[in-house]
Specification:
Helix content of chain A: over 70%
Structural class of chain A: mainly alpha
Largest sheet of chain A: none
Strand content of chain A: under 5%
CATH class of chain A: Mainly Alpha
Radius of gyration of chain A: 20 Å
Shape of chain A: globular
CATH superfamily of chain A: Phosphate transport system protein phou homolog 2, domain 2
Number of domains of chain A: 1
Number of strands of chain A: 0
CATH architecture of chain A: Up-down Bundle
Distance between the termini of chain A: 15 Å
CATH topology of chain A: Methane Monooxygenase Hydroxylase, Chain G, domain 1
Number of helices of chain A: 7
Oligomer: homodimer
Largest interface: A-B, 31 and 31 residues
Amino acid sequence: MEHMDFGRHTSREFNQDLENIRNMVLEMGGLVEQQVGDAMIALLQSNSELGQQVEDRDVEVNALEVKIDEACTQIIAKRQPAASDLRLVMAVVKTITDLERIGDEAEKIGHLAIKLATDTHRPEYYRHLELVGQMAKTILGNALDAFARLDAQAAFDTAKSDRKIDDEFETLSRVLITHMMEDNREIKNVLRVSWCARSLERIGDHSKNICEYVIYLVKGKDVRHISLKKIRKQFFNNPK
Amino acid sequence: MEHMDFGRHTSREFNQDLENIRNMVLEMGGLVEQQVGDAMIALLQSNSELGQQVEDRDVEVNALEVKIDEACTQIIAKRQPAASDLRLVMAVVKTITDLERIGDEAEKIGHLAIKLATDTHRPEYYRHLELVGQMAKTILGNALDAFARLDAQAAFDTAKSDRKIDDEFETLSRVLITHMMEDNREIKNVLRVSWCARSLERIGDHSKNICEYVIYLVKGKDVRHISLKKIRKQFFNNPK
């Protein structure tokens, strides 16, 4: 397992500052994970109250983003971090943008759950949707674990797994289109389900972004927009 | 007009560095604007070649993001910027993330334009789509202008105008649903058009984000997730 240790500064306050923003990111990550989980429960169980709660709690996610951003700016101004410390701060600044957007996607699913809750009929494709939801939660959880442990190998494996959600999303989309064609009256609701699926797929994308920041942080190189094959060749020896 | 001047450092190199990242952002903004414009032409004129070109050029947008990010990290490490200089660097780091995602949306529209090009039939709702496209291009252009001139008032006005795209997007979505219900065979293509519309709406959101960074940069306060009414009260005197 690749990992880094930031607890090596002579200044105890500096260590504390860095530890502090890492913990805040994990707190924000935990909240966002819960939002995604709750949004999926609201959707699958026609629970409009829970859907509303997810919508309402998005302000907490947003507030954390602003707070962590401020903390990062202050660390840069006060501590003038260099090398891996600076990479940590920059990775945090990027990570929280993606976490905030995952929060937005959860909010959208919560909102759609309310609209869909009036119709308690749950066709077969909801099982498929549940599966995509599980995959999104797993990749998000794994990305946050990789961040917590600064584990580049785990980040790489997780980033790679995003393709599975994309494939599953494509399959689900085809199923939904067939349903729309079969029953005109269902178009509006099936369309709403397809927006939920799209949000889940985006949660996968954002989680993949977080993994790329972890690799950048640990390996010291920006790996965004580089193919996974190239990344493996350059940074990881084990063939997978 | 509110504006700032960054050309006041005793170190000429520092001024040059700051000017340099601003110019790179404007270069990236110009490229992204062109991508959005080309994607819309490809879509409206069933030009699959141009759609392909938009898809292919997305790598240029991505490369610029990585390059600017590196330049920002280097400025922080080398120059240890404080106050408004640091805010500029942080605003740039955030802005290019949104520009990159606008590029992704343009790429998606380009991709969908190719799929839709085989069907040269252009129903009435394409005019409506063109209107939403025009609005997206306008808000993006205005956001970039506000950034170029560091004009907080223009940024505020532009951010406010995002609501118009959201409204227009909702209207268009309703029109598209009606079309799907009327003609089953058209569902797949109408759905593709609705994905394009969604991408345009997101371009509006990202442009609004850029405006918020400009306000943060000029006014020194993070205004994300605050209602526009509150922002006006706090920072702008003119009633609008």
